[in-house]
Each structure stands twice: as C-alpha cells, then as structure tokens.
C-alpha cells in the first residue's frame, strides 16, 4: 500500500506527463516521471554486485554493440561517490516486499540505479531500462548519431503471477536452436519466465535420449507433411530435426541466465506415433506405423504394459537430468480409447487396477508417472484431461486449455493450475479477418481478446484459492508455422499483450493505453528483426 505522500507524488507526476507515454511493456506497477534525462556517453560505467555480474555483462554486451563505447564493469561493493556517470545494479534486501522478481529503478540526470531484493528482480529492472533507451539499442551493430538518453523516472514494479509462460511446439515443425534462443530473448524482454518446450508428438520426436537412440534415428523424421488443410494430400517433402543433449543443456543454460525456466513436454500416452514408429513393441498392436504425416490426433497410443512403463521412466530419468525445472509436462491429453478398449492386455490391466474404463486407466498410468517424477523431486504437469478419469496425481499442476472451467475444477480438486484456454491464449488462431493472412489452424483471436483475458476465474476472486492460479501462458502450435518467421508473425504482438496480462496489475490494464505504448514498442521489434504482424 502506497503512503499518502507517495500517492500524491504519483498523481502529480501523472498530471505532468507529456502526451507520449513512457512505452514500457508490460506496464510497470508504478512509474513516476521526473525532470530531465540521463545521457549515456563514452565515460559511462556499469557497477554491479557480484551476484548480478552476469546480468550486468548481458547489458554491457548490448550497450557496447549499439554505441561502440566501452562501458567498463566495476565491482558493486565500492561505496565511493562515483567520479563519472554510472548505471548501477545492486541487491537491496529492504525491498523484500516487492518479492523475488520485483525491483526499483531510479533514473536521474546523474545516473541509473536498479535495486532489487533478488537477482531475478534486478534482471527485470534491466529489461525496463532497455526499453527506456532508444530503440536503436536493439540493433545488432553500432548506430551512430543516436542520443543515448534515459528519461528521469522512478519505477517500482513486481509481477502479478509467478508463471508467465510461452509454449512452443517444435514437434509439428522443428525449429533450429538459434530460433529457440531468439524466442527466449524475446520472452525475457517482455518479462515472461516459463518456456514450455513441446518436444514430442505424433509428427516427430525432437529430443536425444541416449538409452533409446531410435527415437531420433527414426522418430525425428517424417517422409512428408500434410498439404494445407487437405488430409488426403501430402507435400512430398521430408521433414526432420532434433536437439542433442548438448543442445538442450545450452538452451537451458541460456534461458537460466535470462531467468527463464524451461519446462519440457514429453507427450504420453497419446500423441505417441513417433515413439511407436521407432519402438513398435510399446504399442497395443503389432501393426507397424510410420511417423505421422498428417495433423490431428492419431488413434495409435502407448500400451500400459510393464515394458512401456519402464520405457517412460527411463526416458524421464534422462529428461530430469537435462532439465533442472521443478516441473515436467507429460501431456496426458487427447488419448483415443479405442486401442485400450480392444487390447486384451489393456483390459487385463483395467481389471488388475480396478479401472472401470479407459479414462480411469489413463489416471492410473498418470499416477505411476507422477510418482516417479515425485521420487526425483519434480512435479507432473498435464493438460486438463488428466482430471477426466477421477482424482489427478497428487501435487500435479493442471494446465487448463479446453475451457476456463477446467481450471476452476482443478483448483477445487486441490491442484495448482496454469490457465491456457484456447479462447484467449491459442496463438495459432487467426489474428485478423483481413484477406491475405497466412493459413492458420482456425478460430479467431485478435490482440484485444488476448489483452482482455483474466486468468483468475470470477468464482475465485478474493478467496484463498486464487493463489492456486499460478499464472497463464500462450500456446504456439506449429502445424501451419513451418519457419521461425511464421512463428514470430503469429506470436507478436499478441504475446506482448499476454505478457501484460500476467505481469501488470489487473486494475491497471487499459487497452487504449497498451496500444499507445505498443506503437513505439514495435520499433524495438523492428530493430530486432522480428517478423511480427503490424
């Protein structure tokens, strides 16, 4: 709660604002304008506490690239009055009320200070500083003739939700490692902090598992892809690709430096045709199968035999070794029941476990997988179908995608939830009804609908269980996004709108104000070479 004096200062500063807003996206909790600007020059230095050195180095690299000036990095422990202009990053435990991701940024004509109770907050303060500088900062080369100035401001900021996510499907269309790193960079700029990496599906397995080499030898390649919407026709072009374990470690390390947690998704027991192409004995029928060349949902699913469960735990053992995230997503969605209903082995497993139908058998399997992950200190995350067969795995996080009510049901059942409803967060939907838009999976999701999304169901507002809503994320399913440029076109600027939904206070959200800030923000995306929809 702001003091009366602080509130008065804020009101007076807002009254004095010039017509053009300070274009920070997502909008900070509090931003007060001051007098003048801080102008960077060849003598400007950086100073950072030891625990913030990597964040300071990332800023230093960017400032050097844009300006050509040295920006020497000094030890933050020195307390002397600076002899030249400085940008300082420091830890301040007295700001603990802002939370581990909160920060305070103060800019005056004498310099900039970013103070935070923890390293993550300092990093987010740097993202705000980057947006306060001219957009040429984001170019990949020195830009002469720019006045490198920061407006005098005082910012106090913290996120609304702890899970601020962006999902990316690389199974339908493989994305090169560089494109993944670029996506993480854009997430970090917008203060998004969970990268949900959808690595496996019917159309491709993208992760090297050393115990099962055929997963990438066979499962990472399909002979063609569906041609447009025509399920009867293929494009005749082979498609493939996968990430080595060294690739994954690089991505995870890169993301961690930007305070992004990488949550892997390993689909099971449905969306598994690429697995069955590589290891057909894990299925319910001996009929051979290829990596699927069409979109949609394959009827082929994993068996529930002991050998399949052993396979799944073996795979997940390598996954948890690669990904330090406390969360592992196992899919659990869209599991056609036909094969289990027709399989003598699956029916025998139903009798053994007391499952009355395929949905309850699915819950039993998820329980086995969840217990294994718990033994490794990890939490299972699953799409909301994991609730369909009865109580879900204890401690599981439910990702609500079919409708918002699924999230409410999950909370009432005692689960944490991440809101991801297709009505507001599926960025594979059309963003415009204008002619000439690239082919999309269907639906219509304009930017203003994304911005209007409220993650906390009204039934939970003001109650203790509202905290069970960890946050929200946007989904990028890539059936019709064959290139990184196509992904960017569908993601931005809608993902910027979602970033404001999950970061900024609900009462501060204003579509007209967002659009006013978005216009200059797009200049930053231009400088970065992002192929957004204008």
Major sheet attributes: 8 strands, parallel, barrel
Q: Major sheet: order of its strands?
A: 8-9-16-17-18-19-20-23
Give the tally of β-strands. Answer: 23
Number of continuous helical runs: 17
* N-C termini distance: 38 Å
Structural class: alpha/beta
| CA gyration radius, whole angstroms | 25 Å
Q: Determine the mean pLDDT.
A: 94
Structure report:
This protein has helices at 4-15, 53-67, 119-132, 177-189, 214-217, 245-257, 273-278, 306-322, 338-342, 344-353, 358-375, 404-412, 422-425, 447-451, 484-491, 494-503, 511-528, and strands at residues 30-39, 45-48, 73-75, 86-91, 103-108, 111-116, 149-157, 163-169, 194-198, 200-201, 204-205, 221-222, 226-227, 230-234, 239-240, 261-268, 327-331, 379-383, 397-400, 416-419, 429-430, 442-444, 469-474. The chain is an alpha/beta fold. The strands form 6 sheets. It has an 8-stranded parallel beta barrel, surrounded by 5 helices. A 7-stranded mixed sheet has the order 1-7-5-6-4-2-3. The longest helix is centred in the C-terminal third of the chain and has 18 residues, at 358-375. The radius of gyration is 25 Å and the shape is globular. The two termini are 38 Å apart.
């Amino acid at each position: 709660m702001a003091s009366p004096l602080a509130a008065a200062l804020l009101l007076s500063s807002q009254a004095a604002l010039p017509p053009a807003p300070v274009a920070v996206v997502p909008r900070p909790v509090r931003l007060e304008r001051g007098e003048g600007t801080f102008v960077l020059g060849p003598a400007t230095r950086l100073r950072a506490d030891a625990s913030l050195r990597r964040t300071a180095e990332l800023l230093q690299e960017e400032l050097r690239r844009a300006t050509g000036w040295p920006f020497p990095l000094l030890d933050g422990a020195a307390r002397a009055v600076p002899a030249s202009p400085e940008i300082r990053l420091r830890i301040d435990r007295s700001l603990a009320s802002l939370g581990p991701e909160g920060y305070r940024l103060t800019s005056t004509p004498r310099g900039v200070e970013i103070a935070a109770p923890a390293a993550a907050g300092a990093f987010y303060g740097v993202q705000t500083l980057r947006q306060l500088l001219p957009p040429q900062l984001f170019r990949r080369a020195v830009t002469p003739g720019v006045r490198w100035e920061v407006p005098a401001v005082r910012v106090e900021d913290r996120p609304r939700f702890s899970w601020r996510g962006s999902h990316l499907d690389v199974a339908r269309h493989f994305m090169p490692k560089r494109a993944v790193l670029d996506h993480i960079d854009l997430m970090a700029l917008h203060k998004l902090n969970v990268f949900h990496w959808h690595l496996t599906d019917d159309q491709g397995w993208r992760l090297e598992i050393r115990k099962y080499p055929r997963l990438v030898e066979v499962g990472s390649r399909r002979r063609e892809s569906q041609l447009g919407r025509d399920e009867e026709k293929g494009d005749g072009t082979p498609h493939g690709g996968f990430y080595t374990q060294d690739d994954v470690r690089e991505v995870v390390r890169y993301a961690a430096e930007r305070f992004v947690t990488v949550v892997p998704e390993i689909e099971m027991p449905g969306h598994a045709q690429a697995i069955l192409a590589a290891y057909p004995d894990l299925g319910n029928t001996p009929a051979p199968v290829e990596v699927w060349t069409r979109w949609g949902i394959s009827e082929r699913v994993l068996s529930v035999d002991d050998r399949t469960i052993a396979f799944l735990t073996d795979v997940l053992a390598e996954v948890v070794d690669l990904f330090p995230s406390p969360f592992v997503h196992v899919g659990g969605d869209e599991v056609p029941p036909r094969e289990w209903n027709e399989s003598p082995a699956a029916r025998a497993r139903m009798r053994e476990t007391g499952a009355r139908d395929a949905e309850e058998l699915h819950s039993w399997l998820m329980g086995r997988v969840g217990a294994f992950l718990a033994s490794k200190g990890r939490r299972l995350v699953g799409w909301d179908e994991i609730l369909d067969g009865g109580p879900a795995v204890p401690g599981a996080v439910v990702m609500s995608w079919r409708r918002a009510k699924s999230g409410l049901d999950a909370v009432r059942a005692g689960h944490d939830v991440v809101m991801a409803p297709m009505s507001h967060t599926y960025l594979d939907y059309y963003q415009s009804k204008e002619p000439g838009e690239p082919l999309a999976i269907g639906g219509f999701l304009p930017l203003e609908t994304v911005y209007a999304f409220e993650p906390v169901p009204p039934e939970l507002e003001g109650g203790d269980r509202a905290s069970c809503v960890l946050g929200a994320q946007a989904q990028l399913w890539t059936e019709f996004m064959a290139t990184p440029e196509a992904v960017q076109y569908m993601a931005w600027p809608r993902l910027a709108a979602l970033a404001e939904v999950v970061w900024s206070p609900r009462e501060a959200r204003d579509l007209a104000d967002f659009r006013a800030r978005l216009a200059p923000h797009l200049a930053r995306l231009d400088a970065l070479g992002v192929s957004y929809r204008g």
